[in-house]
Specification:
17 strands, 36% helix, globular, 382 residues, 6-stranded mixed sheet, FAD/NAD(P)-binding domain, alpha/beta, 12 helices, binds flavin-adenine dinucleotide
Length: 382
């Protein structure tokens, strides 16, 4: 097992010219990690301004460690809600199955952010540290910026990934996700996972008295993999009709909703070539069932900068991929498995609910400990 590398000011990143393609969560975290090591960093974002879809994002301890190491802990604490528990719910009866406490666990806390706040925290820190941000700058394979290192943080439809890997063979999972934010006065600091046959929803509070809703349904009707697709809130309500009023009452409040087709993509085989490296969704798009896509992108950003600080690129970039690929693959496999667990029907569903109740009663800590490999990982310690 390769040991993480600690990034340090004054290493090989000092004076390096780094161009980051994409001002998403992964790209901005990478820009900040490099500039903190003394690199001259430019970010190229195709959108005319840096905005985010109106939705929430959960940052787990493994991602929070990177934010803290980048000097963002205070801003993160101020602009997020600290999660206290996860509650699996029976979405048919509306009953809570059990509760798993997050508060009191060792290490950083879990946080619920509005994505716009998290982007703003990273963007402000980048600008303060001297990163040049160019909006309205779409990078194409034949317009790559001149730099010592080009970092592809250009997301699920990356232009850099196919340059390194050719086209990937994504396939529709037969699931779609709606995303919405509603005003909601009861903002208990916990995530609820509402499970029903063939569908589930996750709800958690955001700052400002809002509630984030992600609702997933198995269906064969294809939907585009793009958050800019708006849907009629009536379609969301129709998909979840007949479930507990505790859930459908929340869906009744939805006024605007995005719809996204969930696709499985293979993890890229090649994360680097020459002076190009990719990270985050560009390297490994992740289904949302473990809330890890952005957290893994933060980890990638840190490890990439740390590897480049410690060695010249021909050694650093293979090391970066070697340190990341197996972990990312494991997280993605775990997320894929959750989709099945959340959507059980009939006897398997009853058995699973009994199991959750049982473990919640006798060994709730053990249930959470099964994900220690994920949340306790600290890429910032070398
Ligand atoms: C329903 C749902 C819920 C989720 N919830 C969570 C969660 O709770 N926690 C979590 O960790 N993850 C979550 N994720 C995953 C997470 O949103 C993504 O993994 C993460 O945003 C990826 O970040 P990124 O920076 O790699 O890509 P992106 O955020 O997609 O950013 C890519 C950027 O690159 C720009 N760009 C693209 N092409 C070009 C180009 N050619 N030139 C210039 N700029 C370009 C884009 O405009 C964009 O700004 C969720 C995902 C979904 C679908």
């Amino acid at each position: 097992m390769t040991k993480p590398v600690k990034t340090s000011r004054g290493g090989l990143n000092r004076g390096r010219r780094v161009a980051v393609v994409g001002a998403g969560l992964g790209g901005l975290a990478a820009a900040l990690a490099f500039v903190r090591g003394g690199a001259k960093v430019e970010v190229f974002e195709r959108a005319p301004e840096i905005t985010e879809v109106g939705a929430g994002i959960q940052v787990s301890p493994n991602g929070a460690r990177v934010l803290a190491a980048l000097g963002l802990e205070a801003a993160a604490a101020e602009r997020s809600i600290t999660a206290e528990a996860v509650e699996p719910m029976d979405a048919v009866s509306g009953r809570r199955l059990t509760r798993f406490d997050l508060a009191g666990r060792a290490g950083p806390v879990y946080r619920f952010f509005h994505r716009a706040d998290l982007i703003d925290i990273l963007l402000t820190a980048c600008r303060d540290a001297g990163v040049a941000i160019h909006t309205g700058s779409e990078i194409m394979p034949d317009t790559l910026p001149a730099a010592d290192l080009v970092v592809g943080g250009d997301g699920i439809r990356s232009v850099l990934r196919p340059m390194l890997n050719g086209e990937d063979a994504a396939f529709f999972t037969g699931q779609v996700a709606w995303r919405a934010v509603i005003d909601h006065p009861d903002t208990a600091p916990l995530a609820r996972v509402w499970m029903a046959p063939g569908q589930h929803a996750v709800t958690y509070p955001l700052t400002g008295g809002r509630l984030n809703i992600v609702a997933v349904q198995e269906r064969q009707q294809w939907a585009k993999e793009d958050w800019n697709i708006h849907d009629d809130p009536g379609n969301l309500r129709h998909a979840f009709r007949g479930l507990s009023g505790r859930l459908t009452g929340l869906l009744d409040k939805v006024e605007a909703v995005g719809l996204w087709g969930l696709f499985r993509h293979p993890v890229a085989g090649h994360w680097h070539r020459g002076n190009i490296a990719i990270l985050g969704d560009a390297a490994h798009p992740t289904l949302p069932f473990l809330a890890q896509g952005a957290n893994l992108a933060f980890e990638d950003a840190w490890v990439l900068a740390a590897c480049c600080d410690a060695a010249e690129l021909p050694e650093a970039l293979p090391r970066y991929q070697q340190m990341r690929r197996a972990r990312v693959q494991r997280a993605i496999s775990t997320a894929n498995g959750n989709a099945v667990k959340y959507h059980l029907d009939g006897l398997p569903r009853r058995v699973a609910h009994l199991g959750l109740r049982g473990i919640g009663a006798v060994a709730p800590g053990a249930y959470m400990d099964r994900l220690n490999w994920l949340y306790d990982h600290d890429v910032t310690q070398g």
